[in-house]
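Hi team,

As requested, here is the filled-out complex form for the DQA run. I kept the field names the same as last time so the parser does not choke. Let me know if anything looks off before we queue the next batch.

— J.
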Amino acid sequence: MNRVLLINGPNLNRLGKREPTVYGVETLESLEKKLDIFAKDQQVELHCYQSNHEGEIIDKIHLAADNYDGVIINPGAFTHYSYAILDAISSISTPVIEVHISNVHARESFRHVSVTAPATIGQIVGLGTYGYKLALLALIEKIRGSENNE
Ligand code: DQA
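And here is what came back:
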């Protein structure tokens, strides 16, 4: 079974309560449960993690190097300024996909830049929590495609 790690960064534990007009009403717990069911259907073992702390997120990314086949990350506001998270993603060869629930390009200009995205294989933006499901499908395609080419 392929193993995928989902990392949600700062303030995403407040999904459902936090600015619902921007991020929707679904809680992180409900999102993680739904994704887990979807992952199992796809024969993927999904581990979900959330942290408000940059160093903890970096430690998890490092852990993914040897323990996971793929990573989905929403770095929250760290997206826009954390060179440390960029370096952490660059330090592993595990494929990483970045997800943003809101359309960051239609918001404040500081959100238009992702310093972390260049180290990822791709970014999904503005499709609500559906973006996580799409990221999982894209990762599966990537992981299984590369396994078949081994
Ligand atoms: C976010 C967008 C970021 O700009 C913001 O700081 C977040 C959430 C999103 O999922 O839309 O915390 O990453």
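Two things worth flagging: Residues 2-148 form a domain with the Rossmann fold fold (CATH 3.40.50.9100). The first helix runs from residue 20 to 23.

Thanks,
J.
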